[in-house]
Amino acid sequence: MCTAIRDDIVSGALAPGSRLVEEILAARYGVSRVPVREALRTLQSEGFVTTRRHAGACVAEPTEQEAADLLDIRAVLEPLGAARAAVRRSPAHLKVLRGLVRLGRERARHGHAADLRQLDGWFHETLAQAAGSPSLTALLTQLRRKVEWMYTVEGAPRAGESWDEHGAVLDAVARGDAERARALMAAHIERSLPVHRLRRPAPPAVRDAKRPVNTARARN
Q1: Residues paired with residue 137 on neighbouring β-strands, in sequence order
Q2: CA 107 – CA 190 distance, rounded (Å)
């Protein structure tokens, strides 16, 4: 339930400022109000939901400063995760990461931009898991979701370069070179900043859309 609501917030299906009425959400996802209430509490603790006087739960409306802070935090945590992964990664992590880099390079070479963002997300999530720290992995995962929520990424022009950078990070992780992995990830994050564009709030006419959705995801 939490995953379904979070995904709709990140995608913009539930726009910033939209009211989150338990009864309406329960009908939207085909569940009772209890899991909706629990999910809203979790999402409030993560910063995706806020509570307003006389309005109840609403999708949060981050300021530009809050959005900028996320990129600064990412610039600190992602290199740390890469460094930890170089020390703690398993053979299974390396196998998955190598497969993702191979696919990413192939898709970038053939101009399959639609696949690249998802592959990029999987690469960074797998690297976070390879860090061997549940707390750090959770922070990095939540951070990436928030960055995806607040920013669009116009990365097609440097897709090939980006996957070459992923490959270099992976090589350092595979060799167990924590400091090189940290430095390469820091440089990768720095180079990615210019392609991030802050999302603009949806027009008022669509802010409280209550369209029905596929309820299959709501069982998560």
Answers
A1: none
A2: 23
Domain range for 3 is 1-59
DSSP one-letter string for 189-219: HHHHGGGEEEPPPPPGGGTT------GGGGG
Q: Hey, is 28 helix, strand or coil?
A: helix
- 184 with 84, same domain: the answer is yes
Q: How are the residues of the chain apportioned to helix, strand and coil, as percentages rounded to the nearest 5? A: 70, 5, 20
Burial 60-76 (b: 16+ CB within 10 A, else e): bebeeeebeebbeebee
Number of domains in the chain: 2
Instruction: Using alpha carbons, select from 168, 74, 167 the residue that is nearest to residue 119.
Output: 167
Q: What does the angle CA 207 – CA 213 – CA 215 come to, to the nearest 5 degrees?
A: 135
Quote the CA–CA distance of 171 and 202 in Å, as a whole number.
41
pLDDT in tens, 88-125: 999 999 999 999 999 999 999 888 777 888 899 999 99
Q: Do 53 and 152 belong together in one domain?
A: no
Determine whether 123 is exposed, middle or buried from the number of CB atoms within 10 Å of its CB (0-12, 13-18, 19+).
buried
pLDDT digits (tens, 9 = 90+) for 10-21: 999 999 999 999
